[in-house]
Amino acid sequence: MEHAQEHEARLEQTQRYCVERPIYNQELLQGQLHRRERTPQTLRQKIAHSCRCSSKKAKSHLYSFLPILKWLPRYPVKEYLLGDIISGISTGVMQLPQGLAYALLAAVPPVFGLYSSFYPVFLYTFFGTSKHISIGTFAVISMMVGGVAVRQVPDEMLSVDSNSTNVTDFLEYYSARDAKRVQVAVTLAFLSGIIQLCLGLLRFGFVAIYLTEPLVRGFTTAAAVHVFTSQLKYLLGIKTNRYSGPLSVVYSLAAVLSKITTTNIAALIVGLTCIVLLLIGKEINLRFKKKLPVPIPMEIIVVIIGTGVSAGMNLSESYRVDVVGNIPQGLRPPAVPEIQLIPAIFVDAIAIAIVGFSMAVSMAKIFALKHGYTIDGNQELIALGICNSVGSFFQSFSVTCSMSRSLVQESTGGKTQIAGALSSIMVLLVIVAIGYLFQPLPQTVLAAIVMVNLKGMFKQFGDVMHFWRTSKIELAIWVVAFVASLFLGLDYGLLTAVAFAMITVIYRTQSPQYRILGQIPDTDVYCDVEEYEEVKEYPGIKIFQANTSLYFANSESYTSALKKKTGVDPCAILAARRKARKRHAREIKAANELRKKATNDVEASVKHEIANDELPVNGNFASADASVQDVSPDEHEHFVEPKTNIHSLILDFTPVNFVDSVGAKTLKSLMKEYREVGVCVCIASCSGPVLNELTRLNFFDSTVTRELLFHSIHDAVLACQVKDKSASQ
């Protein structure tokens, strides 16, 4: 009782409106409105307008292409500089070990990871629009690059005599193999950069929307498994070939297990110790995030300790632990990538370009939303394209945004791209001055860094339960992306996942929700009659809604759902009528035959009486059979035909975004079928673009006029009621 009183009180306090207006159909509404005069531009005028240049337009384009010209002159030094310095140092400290470690994933010597952590990062400062993301090496992209490099230059391609014991032969073999793989990685960076640059200049930044979140998360989870498997041999200190392509993760795991007995115990102990230290450091940073001024740089601490222990105990010579090895001092001169490799790696470059852009723009959007600024997706494509393509001339491989470093850069007080520039300068100092100090660093330490950084990606397995509760279709996308990327490889897996995501879109439009609407009493609001008890249907009127557009893929399901939901099937009614007419015709025929037979019996009786010399009375014969009556055909002409108790059907077009030619023909055919059984079909809430499409498709004619289109469902309901009353009178 109290709940009802509270509800009534809320209703009384609610604002109300009362509008008195005509019942608007499309014909009446268009008659009262006046269209704005618009002069369409010709193609020549459009081209001339786009090519017209003014100082203001040139300045706008220059600022768009080089965002640093816009924000650097306004840079508040006192407010931002300290935060950017602390953030730049913290990010640079992370960038050093990750650059070395992710180079192993890319199947190139570690120094090339340092090059990739300098050139692209520095270039992004000038061309990027995000203030907080950290560009550089990233596990997923590095793994994709490594897969292509190993496929193009497998371990078996360069042969060395298996019986040779000359160390020089093996060193030459590894040197030649690595040089070829570097060329593949560099050319791949150049090509993926050119693709990103072209997509950005052509304003194709929207391509990232096709990589939906469940797809990206499933794909990156599978990539994490690939990365983890590839690092096992470094952690265990065993020698195995590196595999790429379908089932590469299975082959890599089998190769590691087959040689598990050759595990280098010293390498394993060092690696596990580093993993424990890194996990402890991450946990401390997480728990005391608010109390620590900057996160503890555990990765660089582990690298320094690992290098010191390796150099002090001479792990390379005494225990055969694999180390980073030669790190040349200084920068390399620029060199042109090997263009002849492009045909063999073109598809891989497209995949890397799109995945790299998707990663960067998704993180950039998160930070932009959090800090209240906007990013330009097309300019981000251009920036990444320049970073990759220009960086490739200086021997860097493909890069994108790193999630872990971006979070550190943002959380340590980074305000602008200056923080990224400072982190790249730190890497430059290491390359130029102290890079040789990291030569004794064990590779198992780098493997430990990579594995611990996968912790966040492995947490994405929790998405399965989340999507199970929220959306089974998104769960299917996640599972397909994960399984396909895991077993088919990251390149084919990505293509499979994108294709499956497209299929789910088609499935959703082919399997929409269909509803019958009714009125909330004394309002012009219409809701699902099956969902709410208060909603009532008007007698003789059905309101049908489908939450999808009407086109070739779902026109048949729309038709069948309409007939099923409304309970009115014109074809069934017409078939029943034909059947009733045939039955009626058979009844008339049987009655006529009965009358004819009765007449013949009377004639035979008369002849019999004449034969018995029975004379006529008053010149007429007596009735031979009073019981035989003439059957009037009029008595059989009146019969009840199968009829429907629905006189009007309203199609709610509120959710309809477009209609193609097949959909328009289906709609017109439906209106004709229902008209034949006495049901008037109206369309309500049809948007302007859909109305224009129907007009362009020649939907309207003498039988289907604009008077059947109404501004709202309530307009259509009132018009149908008026029409039914006038018809009954």
TrEMBL record:
Keyword Membrane: yes
PROSITE patterns: SLC26A, STAS
Keyword flag Membrane: yes
Gene Ontology MF annotations: secondary active sulfate transmembrane transporter activity
Matches recorded under Gene3D superfamilies: STAS domain
Keywords associated with the record: Membrane, Transmembrane, Transmembrane helix
Listed GO CC annotations: membrane
Full protein name: Prestin
